[in-house]
Specification:
By secondary structure, the protein is α/β, with parallel strands linked by helices. The chain has helices at 26-34, 120-137, 195-198, 201-209, 240-253, 302-316, 335-340, 352-366, 385-393, 408-416, 429-441, 470-482; strands spanning 6-7, 16-17, 41-42, 45-47, 52-55, 61-65, 72-80, 84-94, 140-141, 147-149, 159-166, 172-177, 184-186, 217-225, 228-235, 256-261, 267-270, 278-283, 286-291, 323-327, 344-349, 372-377, 397-400, 421-426, 445-452, 462-468. Helix 9 packs across helix 10 (408-416). InterPro entries: 23S_rRNA_MeTrfase_RlmD, MeTrfase_TrmA_AS, NA-bd_OB-fold, SAM-dependent_MTases_sf, TRAM_dom, U5_MeTrfase_fam.
Length: 483
C-alpha cells in the first residue's frame, strides 16, 4: 500500500462497488431488451448497500434487492422515486457463479440478513470494495485491499431483540421485522444467533402464548455473556401472574431473567438471582474482563470484536507513557486494552451509568494489571466539548468509536488542534465518509485500514482507520527535544 492515504484529485465515482461486475453499457443493454433480444434485466454491479444496480430503457437507475452482478433477472418494482426506482427479484434467469442458496429458511421474508444469497468470501470482498470507494470519494486512493477482520459466518451473534405482537385474530407473532414493513416474521430458528440463544426461540414462543396477558409484552432481549444466557422481558404493564410465569421460565431453562416494566420510566428487576455480567477482551499481557449491564452497548460479534481490539493494539504499537484520549469509550472495550499496553488513558463516555461501570472495570482489572485510566462523563456532540478535552489532555493518540451518528464535532476539533495519531472505529459508512473528509482535508492521512465483518450476511459495514498527522508529530517531537 505504497500510496495509502495519499490525496489525489477528485474524479467522478459511480457510487457502487465493482464486485465482479460486468462493464457493459447499461442503456445499450436496456434498449436491446426493448427489441426482444433477451428477456429480463441485466445487473451491472452491486451498490454500497448490497443491492444490484441496473438501468431501465430510459436510463433510470434501478436498485434490485437479491440480485448479483452479471445476472439476468425479472424484477418487480415496489417503490418509485424521482431519480431511481427500487425493486426485488421475481426470477433469476441467468444466475451468477457467486450466488448460493441462503442458509436461512426465513431469508425471503426476514429483514435481517440481506446478503445470504451471495457467497461469504464475495460478501467480504464487496465490503472491502465499498470502503475503498468511500475513501476514493474523498480523494484518497488505496493500493491493495483493506485488511479483513472476520470470524464464523454462522452462530456468531450474541445479542438480539425479538419483537412480540398479538394480531387482530389473536395470533402470536414473535421474531424479527419483515423487509420494508413493521410486520413481524415468526422465527423459530436463526442461523446467525449463538446456539444458546437460538435454543430459546421455540420455548419462548410457547412461553408467551401461555401468558395471561401476552399483549403486555413489548419485546424480548436476548444476550449471551460469560455467565450464560440473559433474557430481559419488556413488560408494558405489571402482571403478577405473568411475572411468576417468567420467573419459572428462567429457572427451568437456566436463564438469567430480568423484568423491565412500566411504559414511561421502565424499571429493571431481576426475577432470578442477578448475575455479574461480563465478557473478555484481549489485553497487552493477557485477558481483561469487562462488566456490563443489559442496557449497555456491547458488540454483537464477540470474535470480531476481539480481533478489532487486537488490531488496535498492533496498529498503535508502543504506548508506554503515551497520553491517549478514548472518546465514546463505553465500558472500556478499547480503553482497558490500550491502558494495559502502557498508555495513560482518559476515557470519555456520555452515559453516567456506563462511566460508573467503566470505573469499576478499571478497578477490577487493576488487581492483575497496572492500568492508568481516568473515566470521564461528557456530551461529545456538544460544541466545544472535544476541543476542551484536547486542550486538557494533550493526547498523542485519540481513539474514536462513535455510534451511527459519527463524530463530526470530534473531527472538527481534531483539525483545529491536530494530534499525531487518530484511530477511528466506524459502524456507519455515510458518517465515516463525512468525518474522513474533515480529517483528510485538515492534514491527516490514512496509514492503515481494515474492514471488520461484524455482521456476516448483511451489508452492514464496520471499519477501522488509522490516521497520522505529520505536522502534529513534528511539533510533539520538537517540544520533547526542547524539554
Amino acid at each position: 500500500m505504497a500510496m495509502l492515504g495519499k490525496r489525489r484529485p477528485r474524479r467522478e465515482r459511480s457510487g457502487v462497488s465493482g464486485l465482479q461486475g460486468r462493464q457493459a453499457d447499461a442503456r445499450t443493454a436496456a434498449k436491446a431488451l426493448e427489441h426482444g433480444e433477451a428477456p429480463g434485466l441485466r445487473i451491472e454491479r452491486l451498490a454500497h448497500d448490497g443491492r444490484g444496480l441496473a438501468h431501465d430503457a430510459a436510463g433510470k437507475a434501478l436498485f434490485v434487492e437479491g440480485a448479483l452482478p452479471g445476472e439476468r433477472v425479472e424484477v418487480a418494482v415496489h417503490r418509485t422515486r424521482k431519480r431511481f426506482d427500487e425493486a426485488h427479484v421475481r426470477e433469476v434467469l441467468e444466475p451468477s457463479p457467486q450466488r448460493v442458496d441462503p442458509p436461512c429458511a426465513y431469508y425471503a421474508r426476514c429483514g435481517g440478513c440481506d446478503l445470504q444469497h451471495l457467497a461469504v468470501p464475495d460478501q467480504r470482498r464487496h465490503k472491502q470494495a465499498v470502503l475503498i470507494d468511500l475513501l476514493a470519494r474523498q480523494g484518497i486512493e488505496i493500493d491493495g485491499e483493506p485488511e479483513l477482520l472476520a470470524g464464523a459466518s454462522q452462530g456468531y451473534r450474541r445479542r438480539a431483540r425479538l419483537g412480540v405482537k398479538i394480531d387482530a385474530e389473536g395470533q402470536l407473532h414473535l421474531g424479527f421485522r419483515a423487509r420494508h414493513t413493521h410486520r413481524l416474521v415468526d422465527i423459530e430458528h436463526c442461523t446467525i444467533l449463538v446456539p444458546a440463544l437460538e435454543a430459546l426461540l421455540v420455548p419462548l414462543h410457547r412461553q408467551v402464548a401461555s401468558l395471561q396477558a401476552p399483549r403486555q409484552v413489548g419485546h424480548l432481549a436476548l444476550l449471551a455473556s460469560d455467565q450464560g444466557t440473559t433474557l430481559v422481558v419488556r413488560q408494558l404493564k405489571e402482571n403478577t401472574a405473568d411475572r411468576e410465569a417468567w420467573r419459572a421460565f428462567g429457572v427451568e431453562h437456566g436463564v438469567h431473567l430480568a423484568w423491565l416494566s412500566g411504559r414511561d420510566a421502565p424499571v429493571l428487576e431481576w426475577l432470578t438471582p442477578a448475575p455479574a455480567l461480563s465478557c473478555r477482551v484481549p489485553g497487552a499481557a493477557g485477558e481483561l474482563t469487562l462488566g456490563f449491564s443489559p442496557g449497555d452497548f456491547l458488540q454483537a460479534n464477540a470474535e470480531v470484536n476481539r480481533q478489532m481490539v487486537t488490531t488496535a493494539l498492533e496498529w498503535l504499537g508502543a504506548l508506554e507513557g503515551a497520553a491517549l484520549l478514548d472518546l465514546f469509550a463505553g465500558v472500556g472495550n478499547f480503553s482497558l486494552p490500550l491502558a494495559s499496553a502502557g498508555a495513560r488513558v482518559t476515557a470519555v463516555e456520555g452515559s453516567p451509568a456506563m462511566v460508573e461501570r467503566l470505573e469499576r472495570n478499571v478497578l477490577a482489572n487493576a488487581r492483575e494489571t497496572a492500568l492508568s485510566v481516568a473515566a470521564r462523563q461528557a456530551d461529545l456532540a456538544q460544541e466545544g466539548a472535544v476541543a476542551a478535552l484536547l486542550a486538557e489532555v494533550r493526547p498523542e493518540v485519540v481513539v474514536l468509536d462513535p455510534p451511527r451518528d459519527g463524530a463530526a464535532e470530534a473531527a472538527r476539533a481534531l483539525v483545529a488542534a491536530p494530534v499525531p495519531r487518530v484511530l477511528y472505529v466506524s459502524c456507519d459508512p455515510a458518517t465515516l465518509a463525512r468525518d474522513v473528509a474533515h480529517l483528510v482535508h485538515g492534514g491527516y492521512r490514512v496509514t492503515r485500514i481494515a474492514v471488520a465483518d461484524m455482521f456476516v450476511h448483511t451489508s452492514h459495514l464496520e471499519s477501522m482507520l488509522l490516521f497520522e498527522h505529520s505536522r502534529a508529530q513534528q511539533q510533539r517531537q520538537g517540544a520533547s527535544a526542547d524539554g
